Amino acid sequence: MGWALAISLGTLLAAGSEEALDAGAAAAAEPATEQTQPAPEAAPVEAVAAPDPAPAVSAEPDAPHTVETTGYVLLRGTYNRARLGWLLPTDDQPQRAGLLELNGQVKVNVSRHTFVSSDLSLVGQLAGDFRGRDLTGEEVELAAHDTAAARPFLSINELYLLHEVRPELNLLIGKKRLTWGSGFAYNPTDVLNLRKDPTDPTGQRSGVWLARVEVPLEYVTFSAVFAPSVLKAAAGIPYQFLTWPEWDQQDGQAHYQAILRMYALLFDSDLNVMLMYGNRFNDVFEKKFRVGASFSRYFFTDYELHVEALFQSGSTRDFANGDCLKDTSTVLGCVIQGTPFVEKKLLNDPALRPRVLVGARRQFSDDSLLSLEYLYQADGYSREQFQDYVSGLDFAQQALAMGIPPDKIPTLGSGTGAAVADGVPQRFSFEPIGKHYLFATFQKPRIHDDFTAQLVVITSLQDLSTVWTPSISWSVTEWLTLSALGFLPLPGPEGLAATRPSSGAKVSEYSVLPIRYRFTFEARVFY
Q1: Taking the model in full, what pTM does it have?
Q2: Is 522 exposed, middle or buried (0-12, 13-18, 19+ CB in 10 A)?
Q3: What pLDDT does residue 357 have?
């Protein structure tokens, strides 16, 4: 049914690219330094070009009542080898999965100063080959069942109206992805959107519903944004914003994020400063102030340096209670006394807990790209806290094995406030739980003219576990690209790893993942 729905509705999609905002309202509305998510190019892996030295200058406006369309069809097949009997369950994780995305984008120039832009995707999915272990510990194939990985849905990636009141003032309302930070693989200051996939930074285009007022001047741009939370949605279509409905009154608060941002071009450097105030927007912070800033500049033509930082007090991260997880007796003691196994112990901590990313990129003469970025999270787990995290996962698996219902077992998540599920499923969902990370990316385009190769390595610097993601894409024609990708998590040295209490097995951050490896093949047809 999912495939039939996607195919039948796909013919109704037209497409329009907003990435060529080179005219009238578009030019004034989007400074060149603002990192918006473009429609996919002919190759899914693309190098990052040097930013323009100044915000765009208004050109001759587009003719009114014109429509621009484009889009693509994506077919993706994935094989995941499950890591059975480990710390995370695999019952709902298919080893074989397929995805068909019918994407269309439409830009309608309503007048010389107003346009409507949309980016929609109909997605059909297939999932099968679920694996688990029986009572004897032998691997068995589980019965097919309903999971989110097999359900069709509509993704409204972007849908907004932009009106230019005058060249120095424009208004936007709708759903749009705004990313003002300078980070390539990760953006600490992005409190609005779904996190990037570090192995495919431009792949996620889904934004958030918001209203924006922007004042773009020659060297300075001022922006004010208000984004209400989507609290209820069905098949990708939202129907409840800001507050919970009366029939499901989970709290009486408004859920929103407000941001004031200033961009400046000073001495050939791009600077952003952001003041944020939000209440229960994708996390449990209430009436929370945050400050963000970013800097980027090119040196000696080909070398780029950037810094991006978010400053906040407290943390919404979940921490395991180590005193309850030392052994079976302490677990039982906490159960009897009603002591929580998981708590947000830093939620109201007044101490400053920044997240900082520092990186550099080098663009070579053949357009090859080398990017290195370091991420620090003050609220990330220390080695002792990661041991508590592993112990909590281990005792949860033991409880499941003893027949305790899953809803009675405390769960451990990152608890850091990632945006609600939205957009087309990513190849890799990056959830940093430690303090120190390194992202290394190398891209080599135009191999024999039509091939592009990429290698992304994500390293947890606390235990030196890694995720290796090699890929190669082939631009068969102007309208067809084929890609093959690998995904291989590797443990770090045992001396730096945590220990699983039940078996004594060594556990690194990226050996916690419930897969041993993954292969993905994609075919993308542009129209």
Answers
A1: 0.85
A2: buried
A3: 98
